[in-house]
């Protein structure tokens, strides 16, 4: 199946479902971004391009059960559902490898000796929760639940203190650099938003050139 067909199948599967925050579109969009991020990280790390089909497939379906199964078991449940959806539609060996990644994608243990493909999908999955995507996510949730701007910024800034913890869960230097860039983007936005929420003049976002990653 072509990437567009796989994406359409995923979106049809997730249509009408909502995540724990009540967001109906989040999981499908997150899965698509994760698939592309995994391939982008592969290129950045210099790993072999032969794994791109596996990265895309596993990244695309890694959260297929996120909104329909308890979080603790959404990996293995998602692997089983991926098998049901794609059996006979994609290469059997490729599908089996993707299922193995999906089943354990949420079990992050750097230095565990598992496959490079698994690690790339795990890193892509984590990275997609930060940066401009997280700003959009938090403010969308805040609007729905009538959370004020200051409370929204408080929520966003909690991640800044946890940066060292996040970095230990990533597998490559490329992913760690990207995490730093994304959290710096968030910090710049938060600082600008704080100032503007107080009615101050001159507050602006830092340019990307200011981020040393």
Describe the fold and architecture.
The protein has 213 residues and is mainly α. The chain has ten helices and no strands. α3 (52-61) crosses α5, α3 (52-61) crosses α6 and α7 runs antiparallel to α8. The longest helix is centred in the last third of the chain and has 25 residues, at 173-197. 31% of the residues are buried. The model is unreliable at 208-213 (pLDDT under 50).
Q: Could you write a compact summary of the structure shown?
A:
The protein is mainly α and 213 residues long. It has helices at residues 3-14, 26-45, 52-61, 74-86, 92-104, 116-127, 132-144, 149-161, 163-168, 173-197.
Number of helices, counting only DSSP H or I runs of 4 residues or more: 10
* Rg, nearest Å: 18 Å
Structural class assignment? mainly alpha
Unreliable spans are: 208-213
Q: What gross morphology would you assign?
A: globular
Secondary structure layout:
Elements: H1 3-14, H2 26-45, H3 52-61, H4 74-86, H5 92-104, H6 116-127, H7 132-144, H8 149-161, H9 163-168, H10 173-197
Please give a handful of descriptors for the protein shown.
213 residues, mainly alpha, 64% helix, globular, disordered C terminus
